[in-house]
Amino acid sequence: MKILFIGGTGIISSACTNLAIQKNIELYHLNRGSSSSIRPIQAGVNQITTDVRNFEQTASLLDGLEFDAVVDWISFVPEHLENNLKLFKGKAKQFILISSASAYQTPPLSMPVTEETPLDNPYWEYSRNKIDCEKFLKENASNYGMKYTVVRPSHTYDKTLLPFDEGYTVIDRMLKGKPVVVLGDGSSIWTLTHHKDFAVGLVGLLGNAKAMDETFHITSSEWISWDRIFMLVGRAFDVEPELVHIPSEVIASYLPELGAGLLGDKMHSMLFDNSKIKAVVPEFECKIPFEEGVKEVAAWYKSGKANTTIDEKLNEAFDQMIEKVLNVRK
Predict the structure, then answer these.
(1) Fold classified for 168-191+222-270+288-329
(2) Could you please report the per-residue DSSP string of 75-116?
(3) DSSP state of 40
(4) Of all residues in the chain, what percent carry a pLDDT higher than 90?
(5) Are the C-beta atoms of 129 and 76 separated by less than 8 Å?
(6) pLDDT bucket at 33, cuts 50 / 70 / 90
(7) pTM, to two decimals
(8) Is 48 in contact with 91 (CB distance < 8 Å)?
(9) Beta bridge partners of 225
(10) What is the residue extent of each domain of the chain?
(11) 2-157+192-218 — its CATH code?
């Protein structure tokens, strides 16, 4: 098969790239070629260096090329997607849009979530834009001579990604014995998927006749509470963290830049039924539980290669939140 990734060097796409090469897929990357060496890509990728938003330049570089499938990792609004569909009109049999599981009804009325769960996220513009992208693709793919496939990842990580948006500042607090903030009462359930597990599902959809004009989420089936996530992270860094539970709305009021993603995603339990992807890609099975995957994250941060910058404004906000909540509870 001849496949092109628009992108290809990110957290999720890098694992998909490496697995595709292992499977002897003829793989092309179309990107700006500006990514660092944090996630080494196996030899064998054909590189097309361009900014995909530059239509004329990209079209000239694609002249004469055709693909069995194109995977679009970087369309975040319909305008991005329309640009990319025009670029590959008559050049691809299958167009795969990487959407987001945060597009599902939030909070869901029933669980586990399936691909038939309605799409509706009133809290997060990112998710609403992904919903619009999905709609545009489904309505227009045939006009560009392609079959479509929509893929919805949930929280997918590699060694570089801690499971909380506040990053290493949280780890620093753990290491210094300071309390850390956990959203809600810590009991809501979250799903964390290792990028190598996700790759098995995505690569299995490439050129797969059963994937045409279909939608799939690809997630772990491990259901884990936020309290346990924080405890497992702490133990991976050789500490027992002190957890302070604070309502998500309060956290969002102190940290508005994180509010949309918190209220529109992380505060709500999300459990996924992966029957559909398993039926179409029988080899898909998540084999890396978070308890093991987080050890890779800790090793990366302990190696000295990771960004361990401390955000003092974030620290101050944490201290203020914790002090206020603890005073109220006295």
Answers:
(1) UDP-galactose 4-epimerase; domain 1 (3.90.25)
(2) --SHHHHHHHHHHTTTTEEEEEEE--GGGB-SS-SSSSB-TT
(3) P
(4) 89
(5) yes
(6) confident
(7) 0.95
(8) no
(9) 189
(10) 2-157+192-218, 168-191+222-270+288-329
(11) 3.40.50.720
